[in-house]
């Protein structure tokens, strides 16, 4: 879903997305990334861009080669889905806002079950707008709608 807001002189594009989960076919994942790529390319660079969603990937707790997009704070170990997200962010000159602020574990975990605790939800914005994000964390148990 995309929303374009024009406030005075500023145009803000908000994208909400949900990536295919790890168990799905690679073709499905490829189509998702190509679709998101197309949407982001259609937004002029002069407009602000925020992408929030469940990316079903783990970027890990360290930036290891992705210091331009990963702030060095995350949860556990990177996987293939996390690498895809980091590559996407790098290609579009985005930063992963969640990774720029040190947080307690309960403010990093975005999915929890009886067998797993993971961080799969991220907020991305253009590198040039990183100063607009003063903090970014999960607030456990809070919902915006029921």
Descriptive overview:
The chain is an alpha+beta fold. The strands form two sheets. A five-stranded mixed β-sheet has the order 1-2-3-7-4, covered by helices on one side. Strands 5-6 form a two-stranded antiparallel ribbon. It is 19% helix and 24% strand. 23% of the residues are buried. It is built from two helices and seven strands. It is globular and about 45 Å long. The chain has helices at 26-41, 80-91, and strands at residues 2-7, 10-18, 48-54, 94-96, 111-112, 117-118, 121-126.
Average per-residue pLDDT, rounded, comes to 90
Q: Which shape, going by the Cα principal axes?
A: globular
Record field, number of beta strands: 7
How much helix, percentage-wise, in residues?
Answer: 10-25%
Strand line-up in the sheet with most strands: 1-2-3-7-4
Instruction: Tally the helices.
Output: 2
Q: What percent strand?
A: 15-25%
| Multimerization status | single chain
Distance between the termini: 19 Å
The ordered H/E elements are: EEHEHEEEE
Segments where pLDDT lies below 50 for 5+ residues? none
**Secondary structural class:** alpha+beta
Radius of gyration over all CA atoms, rounded: 15 Å
- Major sheet attributes: 5 strands, mixed
Short description:
The protein is α+β, with helices and mostly antiparallel strands. It is 19% helix and 24% strand. It starts with a strand and ends in a 20-residue tail after the last strand.
């Amino acid at each position: 879903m995309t929303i374009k807001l024009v406030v005075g002189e500023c145009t803000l594009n908000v994208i909400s997305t949900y990536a295919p989960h790890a168990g799905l076919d690679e073709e499905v994942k490829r189509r998702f990334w190509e679709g998101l790529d197309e949407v982001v390319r259609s937004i002029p660079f002069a407009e602000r861009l925020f992408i929030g969603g469940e990316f079903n990937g783990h970027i890990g707790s360290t930036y290891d080669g992705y210091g331009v997009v990963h702030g060095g704070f995350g949860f556990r170990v990177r996987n293939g889905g996390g690498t895809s997200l980091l590559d996407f962010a790098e290609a579009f000159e985005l930063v992963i806002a969640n990774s720029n602020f040190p947080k307690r574990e309960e403010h990093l975990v975005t999915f929890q079950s009886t067998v797993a605790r993971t961080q799969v939800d991220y907020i991305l914005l253009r590198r040039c707008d990183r100063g607009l994000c003063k903090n970014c964390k999960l607030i456990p148990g809070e919902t915006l709608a029921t």
